[in-house]
Amino acid sequence: VQAQVESGGGSVQAGGSLKLSCVLSGSTYMRNVMGWFRQAPGKAREPLAAMRIIDDSPFYASSAQGRFTISQDRARNMLYLQMNRLKPEDTAMYYCATGMVGDRILEISEYTSWGQGTQVTVSS
Q: Is residue 2 scored above 70 in pLDDT?
């Protein structure tokens, strides 16, 4: 399955912001949701935010609620994650993924197409 391509990661001080971008690949018929996930060293991959393609309805994990915003640009086939008020504990590899997902929209196992990730490092 073709992979997505993430960009926009980097190093930032606590309290700063970053906007991650993801170039979506593959047929739109192969996905109904798009999402952002992250994995910190030594920890399991966790969901952050997802969006239903059909109506742009967003869903957020508690760790992202209020600080992160997911959005898409249909014309450019892009997915974004705006991250504000970053904390050192946000340091991780961030991944974009797509899939045909039912009710469990933040369930990692439902996503079938993943990017290679982009590193985000937040210093205190």
A: no
